[in-house]
Amino acid sequence: MIIGVPKEIKNNENRVALTPAGVTAFSRKGHPVYVQKTAGHGSGFSDEAYAEAGAVMLNTIEEVYAIAEMIIKVKEPIASEYPLIRENQLLFTYFHFASSEELTHAMIAQKAICLAYETVEKDDRSLPLLVPMSEVAGRMSIQEGAKYLEKPMGGRGVLLGGVAGVKPGEVLVLGGGIVGTQAAKMAAGLGAYVTIMDISLPRLRYLDDVMPANVDTLMSNEYNIRQQIQTADLIIGGVLIPGAKAPSLITRDMLKLMRPGTVMVDVAIDQGGCFETSKATTHQEPTYVVDEIVHYCVANMPGAVPYTSTLALTNATLPYALQLADLGWQAACIKNEELRKGLNIVQGTIVYKGVSEAFGLPFQEVTTVLETAEV
Question: Record-annotated residues binding substrate (predicted)?
């Protein structure tokens, strides 16, 4: 299979979908790899390193899309890329369709094979290709939140760890999954008081056992959230419904319960956000203020630490990408249920229920579409 790696062109997205080590792995199996020049520069990988690993370097993104049977990316295609995508071309990347009706209709129209990192799922319901970036984003949420709590950045002027004689800041983490766990660990390490909320009692019991003494657990419901936001300095939104739109846990009316300068970091923004007032921002303009509350809603947070993020992501994606290349997307998805769950749109048909429900669009079972799909 011919593999294509275009340069990411989303605002301040510095990650790359394949490292030179990944190129070597494909080349040894007989799969030619075409990489757009400078695609790896943001992550610290030179064109020479790719060429030495066996890649053919192409000058433009158009050339990469034109030659590749499988496009491997990090972020979803943006509008300028839509016309480049060919019918039956396999795209393996983060899509987060439920947060973008425009992207969903565009991929339906292009009749591509859209296999989303974020919905590849193991038997234990874990999401192996979302986990590494959730780890990065969870840890970054505290790093960024602490920065925007500074007064010159619009925050309350609170040092999360406090100092002798002064209480530390309070951090509220909504969601006890990968993002929430990593955020709580980072905040606790800084010395903050942390409350982590979830709707699963077994998850809360686990977190209560493993977290340090300055982390409390609390059942997530509207009453408890309204109580906690009144004293929180930093609020992290890390809830996830795989492949579907995130629920709005903090509504516009709740903002008036918070103290001016409180910071909210919405890590769920890729899936539409878990705060009613959330809207996607970029690393160039990461925050905005609503009712004196600072909102940080960058949709590609790990893109700010591309060296770490690229290595973490490609460690997870490469085995799946090799299987797709070796067997072809159809045979690989029939054989591997984890990959099959990653299929969101196949040749113009939505095959992931969360996407169809987000926009009220027609849905077909993936097994039915796989049997009749053109190879």
Answer: 15, 75
- Asked whether residue 156 is marked as a ligand-binding residue, the answer is no
Q: State the pTM of this model.
A: 0.87
Q: How far apart are CA 366 and CA 352, in angstroms?
A: 7
User: Is 198 known as a binding-site position?
Assistant: yes
- Residue in this structure with the two tokens 């983060």, named with its chain if needed: 94
Domains of the chain: 3-119+306-372 (3.40.50.720), 134-299 (3.40.50.720)
**What residues contact 94, with CB distance under 8 A and at least 6 apart?**
73, 74, 75, 76, 116, 117, 118, 133, 270
Closest CA to 207 of 171, 173, 248, 168: 173
Coil vs helix vs strand at 263: strand
Catalytic residue among 31, 96, 233, 266: 96
Has 80 been labeled as part of a binding site?
no
Q: Is residue 298 annotated as involved in ligand binding?
A: yes
Catalytic residue of the set 31, 266, 270, 295: 270
Q: Is residue 96 annotated as part of the catalytic site, yes or no?
A: yes
The yes-or-no answer on residue 326 being catalytic is no
Smallest CA-to-CA distance from 30 within 258, 312, 232, 326 is with 326
Q: What is the pLDDT of residues 26-62, one digit of tens each?
A: 999 999 999 999 999 999 999 999 999 999 999 999 9
